[in-house]
Amino acid sequence: MAQKEEKIMTLNPDKNKTGVNIDKDKYDIIKQAIRQVFKERKEISYSTLTNIIKARLANNFTGSIRWYVEIVKLDMEARKMIERIPDTKPQMYRYKGK
Questions:
Q1: pTM above 0.85, yes or no
Q2: Which residues pair with 19 in a beta bridge?
């Protein structure tokens, strides 16, 4: 019998919205990729972050990388791991740790 996929319920920084229940393995892959990009850059826009991760994971990830990056990025914002930099166009983000 196949082993059941472990899930994680993500958070959303907008308290009026709920997170989503996703595969923990995919969450961990995307979270690690986001952390890696932030080791290389102090600040980054969402589109640049997504494009870098798509290029790195294109051949090794099943599913919409853009969608997973958005969900995990929102979760990391809600957990105060990354933050939006105020008054930036396009919206910029910085890593806060954890």
A1: yes
A2: none
